[in-house]
C-alpha cells in the first residue's frame, strides 16, 4: 500500500487485528522485506504495520536532506493515519534510533521499544570506521562501497547477505549519503537526551558486532533490558527470526502493558 505525506508517497504493509499493535522499522539501506518474518509472526497476535522509509524500497526518493527526526515524523504520521495506537516499535539499525526519537518526542505514542543492533551511543571505535564508509559512499565506487559495508556487517555464515546487498544497492546514492551523514550528529546531540527521556520499556538485542555502549544506555534508561542473538551479523531480523521473535514475545509478556 501507499499513501502520500506532503506529496511524498510512503509505502507500507499492514496486517492482522487485535488490541496489541506493532510498528516495524527497517534500517538504512533496507526495505520492508527486512521485517517480513516478524510481520508474518506478529500479525497473528495483533495489528502490525511494516513501514518503508522515504528514500527506500517502493517509497518515493526525493532529492532532500534525510534525518532520524524526519523519518520519525513520517512514521508517527503514518501510524496515525492507519489507526495504529500505542504500538510496540521494533526497529533494526537506525530504525531503533527512530524508535527512541519517537519515544522522546511523543511519549504517549509507543507502548514499548525493541532495538535490534541499533547504533545508539556509539563506542569510540566506530567513528573512524564510519567516516571511512561515508567517504566511500560519496565516491565513484559507490556500489563497491555498499558491498563492503554489507560484507563487514555480516558474518561469513549469514544467509541473508545477498538479499541485504540487493536492498542496499536499490537505495539511491543521495539517500544513503544524506542519511549516513545524519547518523553521527544525531548520536552526539540527541541519543543521550532521547534515552534519558524514554519512559516505556525497552529491549535491546545485540548481534555479533557491538554498536552501542550498553552500560551508558542502561545508566540513562534504567528500564532497558538487553539480550544477544547467537550466530548472527547485523541483519538479525532476517537472519535469526527463530531467536528474535520469541525474545520480543517474552519482552512483551513481562514488561509491556497490554491494552484493555
Automatic annotation (TrEMBL):
Protein species of origin: Bradyrhizobium iriomotense
Domain AB hydrolase-1 positions: 22-144
Protein name listed in UniProt: AB hydrolase-1 domain-containing protein
Any single Pfam family the record assigns to this protein: Abhydrolase_1
